[in-house]
Each structure stands twice: as C-alpha cells, then as structure tokens.
Write a sequence for this structure.
C-alpha cells in the first residue's frame, strides 16, 4: 500500500526474489509519492534556482565585480515553476512509470487501500476491488501536520505541496518551524525575493543537530536577511484590513508578525487514518505512526510497515531501505534490521548541513563520557582559499577505542562530505585511520581529516596535508 520510495523498493526486492504476484496500490499523490512529486526533487530544483539567482550578486572576492541583483520584477516565477514541473515529470516517468512497466510481476492499482479483514484489502478507485494476500507492506507515507492554531484556516496556510507551486513570490513569507524543511523553504523564498521570518519553538533551529551546527546555519541565514524568532510560539493567526498576521510569543512578549504567505513546517503526521487498522492487530502510537519491531513487522506477523508511516526517520533513503528490508523479511522469513545510527541526512541550504550518527549529548547519555572536536571551515585550506565564511566540522568519537560515532558538518558540500564519515562509521575506523588516509588537496572533505587531527595535535600550527 503506497506508491513512494518504500513501496518501490519493496516491489523491486520482491521482483529480485521472483515473488509471483505483487500488487501496488496508490492514491492521493501521483505515482512516486512524496519525494519526486512534492518533496526532495522539486525542493532541490527550486533551491538551486534560487541560489543561481542570489549568489552571483554576492561579492566574495574583492577584485571581482558582483553581478547586478536579479530584481523580483524580472523573475518569472511561473516559468520557474513550469521548468521545475518538467524536471519532476521527467523523473516521475523514468524512475517510477518506466520501472513499473519493466516489472513483470507487479500490478499497479490506482485507488485507496483499506483493510477489509486482516488478510484482505479493499481498493476503492474507479472500480472497487478486493485484494487478498499472504503478506502486506503498509507504506502510505505522511503529510504535513497542521497544529490546531486559532485562526489558521482564515489565513490560507501553505504546506510543502502548495509552497512548491506558488504562482507569485510572496513579499513577506512567514515560516512556522525551524527544522530542515522550514530552513530549506526559508532560504528558497529569500533567494527568490521574499522577506522571510522563521518562528521556532525550541531554543535553536535544527534542534536535533549539534548546537554548533544550529548556531552556524542560523548565522549564515541571518546574514542573508532571514529573521529568526527562536524559543517563540505562534499563538494565533488573524486577518484585518492591513493583511494577514500571526501573534508570536517571543521572550514573554507578544510580537505581531505580518505576512503574505505562511508555511507550516512543524512536522509530519502519518497517512494511516484511512487504512481501517482496527481489527487487523496492527498497533499505532498516539500520533498514528505504525509500531513495528526492528524487522519492520507490525503486531500482526503478516503485515509489515515501511517509510514515513512508521515515524522512525522521515527520509527518502530510509523509506527505500525499510521497504526492501520489510519485503525480504516478509517473503523469505529473514530477520534483517537497519542500523539507524549509520544513516546520514542533509539539509540543502547554502551552506549545507549534514550529519550522521549520534551527537555529543547522546554519547554522554549512552557512555557518560565523550570526546569531541569541532573545527571551523577556516581551518580547512580550501575554505580559506575560497573565503568561505560559514562552516564547521565536528567529530564525536568513542574515547575507549577512538572510533567515530558521529559527524556533523556545515559546508558548501556537506551532503557529499558526510558520505566519508558514514563509510568510516560503518567500517568502524578510528580517527587514526582517518588521519592516515590521504585526502585530495584542496577539498572541503579534508575538514574531516583535520577534525580527526584536532584530537591529537594543535591544528592551528600545522602545514597543509600533514598526516
Ligand atoms: C519538502 C520535502 C523535502 C524533502 N527532502 C528530502 C531530501 O532532500 N532527502 C530525503 O532523504 N528525504 C526528503 N524528504 C522526505 C522524503 O520525501 C520522504 O521521507 C519519503 O518520500 C517517504 O517515502 P514513503 O514511501 O514512506 O511515502 P510517500 O512517498 O509519501 O508515499 C506514500 C504514498 O501512499 C499514498 N497513500 C496514502 N494513503 C493511501 C492509501 N490508504 N491507499 C493508497 N495509497 C495511499 C500517498 O498518497 C503516497 O503517494 C522530503 C520531504 C519533503 C516533504
């Protein structure tokens, strides 16, 4: 059930295992689900377009004349959205429709799935159909969670879906939520020409990241003119003759935040409400996310769950991994599981943020002891040569054996750099192995080696490429 990353990975695994009868049932979003239609792909296209508009006019080298800023009036947002749609359509075709056509054993049904019994699903689409099966995978994804804020319906709020298809760049763009999604959209619209304010309930943006990361990315985004209200709560929305407003409680005071469009980026809720899970034995938590064991099996041994609807880590990569593992466990009886501590993730702002593994605080909780080093991007020769103003690399190691257990970076290519740390963690390599590994000079990836060296020497007095 579903039509996104988790289901496609599950169907691919089923095809590899030569399972004869596989049925995929999708409704709501088009084939491909969140990532290709209203998530990773369109957001990254628009972020890149925004960056191409914004950065040419930011002078980095004093000897170069920055390009004139593209004014909001010369930006044709309709053309921008149309080109984004073209890219989405081309990926939807090649990565989903063509894949379905190539599967010999998979039937794709358009319709909403709902359990009729623990072993049968009713599909309501153009025609109602009953599907009986030995095993099921629920992979119905998630959607934006809309908090019950007073006046919210009156202001016509946006979720990721509407924000990725706006016909006009809002003059004032308010973002509720300073998590990965909130920050990506904040910078996207800042670069497209909006005045942007981000309201975050926690003490810092990206509250699940290392505190140094939150501080650095906020500093970078503030320097581009994005305003932040942290430790702040949106109390209510209203509309009057002057426009749309949000009342924000900030440091004990009520602040008026006027806006033309507001994006709600306060988290996700699972698409499990239409599945009629009562009577199937499948258990959900108080938010509706499906509970599974570490093999992705629900409380009913014939029903597995994968992807966003399990509430573990809402990432395309995790959905795909879980879909494949769930299909294999369901169909062959294996008991594979996933090590969530080794899953990297990124925020595609400029600079990017990426991390893998556990934070310093988490290691302290687990071991009651920790060893960490954080180096600024200015310690990395490439960062200095390119006059990079923002960035850090932080490594968390297990002090008992010097193995890397966590890495976080803010850098122009953080999402690429984090792969090295991920492989290092998977291979259980120590900081000494990392130091001993020759890195290409000059690269931002050297930052990981330099952070490792910071455990053993004073990196302030160190020549380039010292091992
Ligand atoms: C704006 C945005 C940006 C993102 N960027 C990234 C990124 O850069 N990197 C990354 O790794 N992740 C990113 N994500 C997260 C990623 O998109 C999701 O984690 C992933 O797509 C979830 O896949 P899934 O298969 O679990 O669910 P989905 O892809 O949502 O698929 C579920 C499908 O099931 C359908 N469905 C729901 N109920 C039923 C039903 N009863 N019957 C039939 N069908 C049903 C849904 O309509 C949908 O088509 C982003 C998400 C958003 C919103």
């Amino acid at each position: 059930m579903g039509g996104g990353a988790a289901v496609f990975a599950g169907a691919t695994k089923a095809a590899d295992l030569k399972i004869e009868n596989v049925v995929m049932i999708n409704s709501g979003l088009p084939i491909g689900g969140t990532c290709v239609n209203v998530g990773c792909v369109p957001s990254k296209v628009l972020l890149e377009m925004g960056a191409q508009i914004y950065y040419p006019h930011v002078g980095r080298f004093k000897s170069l004349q920055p390009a004139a800023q593209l004014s909001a009036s010369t930006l044709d947002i309709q053309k921008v959205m149309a080109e984004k749609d073209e890219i989405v359509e081309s990926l939807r075709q090649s990565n989903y429709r063509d894949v379905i056509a190539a599967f010999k054993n998979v039937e794709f049904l358009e319709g909403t799935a709902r359990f009729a019994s623990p072993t049968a699903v009713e599909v309501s689409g153009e025609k109602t159909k009953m599907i009986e099966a030995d095993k099921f995978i629920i992979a119905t994804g998630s959607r934006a969670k809309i908090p019950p804020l007073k006046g919210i319906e009156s202001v016509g709020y946006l979720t990721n879906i509407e924000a990725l298809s706006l016909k006009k760049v809002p003059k004032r763009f308010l973002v509720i939520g300073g998590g990965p999604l909130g920050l990506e959209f904040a910078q996207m619209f800042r670069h497209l020409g909006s005045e942007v304010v981000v309201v975050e309930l926690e003490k810092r943006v990206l509250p699940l990241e290392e505190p140094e990361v939150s501080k650095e990315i906020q500093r970078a985004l503030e320097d581009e003119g994005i305003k932040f209200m942290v430790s702040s709560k949106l109390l209510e929305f209203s509309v009057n003759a002057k426009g749309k407003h949000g009342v924000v409680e900030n440091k004990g005071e009520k602040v008026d935040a006027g806006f033309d469009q507001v994006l709600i980026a306060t988290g996700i809720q699972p698409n499990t409400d239409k599945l009629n899970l009562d009577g199937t034995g499948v258990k959900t938590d108080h938010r509706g996310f499906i509970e599974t064991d570490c093999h992705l099996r629900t409380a009913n041994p014939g029903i597995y769950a994968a992807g966003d609807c399990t509430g573990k880590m809402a990432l395309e990569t995790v959905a795909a991994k879980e879909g494949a593992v769930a299909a294999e466990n369901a169909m062959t009886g294996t008991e594979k599981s996933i090590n969530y501590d080794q899953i990297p993730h990124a925020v595609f702002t400029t600079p990017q943020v990426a991390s893998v593994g556990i934070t310093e605080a988490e290691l302290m909780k687990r071991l009651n002891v920790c060893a960490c080093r954080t180096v600024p991007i200015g310690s990395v020769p490439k960062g200095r040569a390119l006059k990079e103003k923002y960035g850090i690399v932080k490594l968390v190691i297990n002090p008992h054996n010097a193995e890397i257990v966590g890495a976080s970076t803010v850098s122009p290519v953080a999402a690429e750099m984090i792969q090295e740390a991920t492989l290092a963690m998977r291979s259980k390599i120590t900081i000494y192995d990392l130091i001993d590994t020759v890195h290409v000079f000059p690269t931002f990836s050297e930052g990981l080696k330099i952070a490792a060296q910071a455990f053993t020497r004073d990196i302030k007095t160190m020549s380039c490429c010292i091992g």
About this structure: Residues 1-7, 25-29, 33-35, 39-40, 43, 112-113, 139-141, 160, 181, 271, 274-275, 307-308, 314-317, 319, 348 surround flavin-adenine dinucleotide (CB under 6 Å). The CA atoms of residues 42 and 84 lie 6 Å apart. DSSP finds 13 helices and 21 strands in the chain. The longest strand covers residues 232-240.
